[in-house]
Amino acid sequence: MKREAVALAFLGAILLVVSFLPDPFFLTLLRALVMMLGAYSLYIAKKVWELEKGFNEAVRVGEKIKKKLDELQVS
């Protein structure tokens, strides 16, 4: 999942850079759309990264709980 977040962030950065090209390349409305897509993809990439981080933390806590339960069952 981290790989997808990095790829999405890279795409967002490229779209933001493209949105600042001079006027002959893009019309104003198209430039605004590309800028919004770039910013939104960076936002989604950040949320995916946070989700991955939270998921990893939940897995760690689950493993600790399982270890404690196993210790209680052995005793």
Entry summary:
With 75 residues, this protein is an all-alpha fold.
Task: Give an account of the 3D structure.
The protein has 75 residues and is an all-alpha fold. The model has no long low-confidence stretch (mean pLDDT 79). Helices cover 87% and strands 0% of the residues. Helix 1 runs antiparallel to helix 2. The relative contact order is 0.15. It has one domain.
**How many helices does DSSP assign?**
2
DSSP, total strands: 0
Whole-number radius of gyration?
21 Å
User: How much of the sequence is in beta strands?
Assistant: under 5%
Mass-distribution shape: rod-shaped
| Overall structural domain count | 1
The low-confidence runs, each spanning 5 or more residues with pLDDT under 50, are none
* Measured distance between first and last alpha carbons: 39 Å
The helix/strand series, from N terminus to C terminus, equals HH
Mean pLDDT: 79
Structural class: mainly alpha
What topology does this entry show?
Elements (H helix, E strand, L loop, with lengths): L1 H18 L8 H47 L1
Helix pairs in contact: 1-2
Based on the model shown, name its key terms.
single chain, 75 residues, mainly alpha, 0% strand, rod-shaped
